[in-house]
Amino acid sequence: MIELRLHVVMAERRINMTDLEKLSGVNRNTLHRMYHGKAARVDLEVIDKLCHALKCEPGDLFNYEK
């Protein structure tokens, strides 16, 4: 199972949803679904924008659990 870790990365960087929306250009609804682990799929473009805004790697946003 793949777990979304956006909430963890945001907490580590002390950034809120509104600021991340402005920095990344990602729609607030998409961020909300990812933050709460409700997103069924995520476009590579969204991952790219989030990594750029949060200065992180894609692996920081996801965790794989068997």
UniProtKB/TrEMBL annotation:
It holds the Pfam family HTH_26. GO terms for molecular function: DNA binding. InterPro entries: Cro/C1-type_HTH, Lambda_DNA-bd_dom_sf. Transmembrane segments: none annotated. It comes from the Bacteria. Coiled coil: none annotated. Residues 12-61 form the HTH cro/C1-type domain. This is XRE family transcriptional regulator. It comes from Pseudidiomarina marina.
